[in-house]
Amino acid sequence: MAPPVRQRSLSLIAGAIIMASCVSCGDATDARPVTREEAEHALADIVAIARSGNFDALCSYQGVNQAMCERQLKFAGVPAPSTAPAVVSLRELRADPHSGLVLRICGTKDSGEQYVSDLPVWRVDGKIEVQNPVYWSGTLIQELVSGETALAQRQPVPECG
Questions:
Q1: Averaged over 9-25, what is the pLDDT?
Q2: Is there a cis peptide before residue 79, judged by omega within 30 degrees of 0?
Q3: Would the pLDDT of 110 be above 70?
Q4: Contacts with 135 (C-beta within 8 Å, 6 or more apart), sequence order
Q5: How far, CA to CA in Å, does 56 sit from each of 64, 68, 69, 70, 76?
Q6: What is the mean pLDDT of the chain?
Q7: Angle at 33 between CA 23 and CA 24, to 5 degrees
């Protein structure tokens, strides 16, 4: 067994090699914040895909968990609403490891039922990714911040108008 000082030195060297290789891999941690324009462009993309009826493409959109998307489709139903939703608010997403924006959107299904949903948008490796592309599902994102209760973090759900 190596003496403790030697083990720590080997650990530090191994850690330095791993960090150096991560830095040389490319821009894995793109720190540029997502802009409102980028988030709204991603929303426009998924609305166009959903309205075309190509749900395989919707559930394969950059960053989307396919299994979760398919479950949301079963819950929300198809087809997608024929009218695009409106962005009613915007907030920062303080999630780890990716910060970004959450678009709160509001719309009306073809049945006349109104919905309010959140669309998280973030950047990974320089590319914009989304979660919850089934925007008419009524899925809301609740973030918990260390030291605060869920009740303190609760966002009011706006009325569709």
A1: 32
A2: yes
A3: yes
A4: 43, 46, 47, 50, 80, 85, 105, 107, 117, 119
A5: 11, 13, 10, 9, 15
A6: 78
A7: 10
Q: What's the rounded Cα separation, in Å, for the pair 118 and 161?
A: 17
Q: What is the pTM of this model?
A: 0.73
Domains of the chain, first to last: 36-153 (3.10.450)
Q: Is residue 100 classed as helix, strand or coil in its secondary structure? A: strand
**What is the spatial distance between Cα 42 and Cα 71, in angstroms, rounded to a whole number?**
21
Amino acid at 21: S
Give the helix/strand (H/E) hosting 118: strand 114-124
Say what the pLDDT of residue 26 is.
Answer: 39
With CA atoms as reference, report the closest residue to 118 among 88, 73, 84.
88
pLDDT-based confidence at 10, cuts 50/70/90? very low
pLDDT at 12 over 60: no
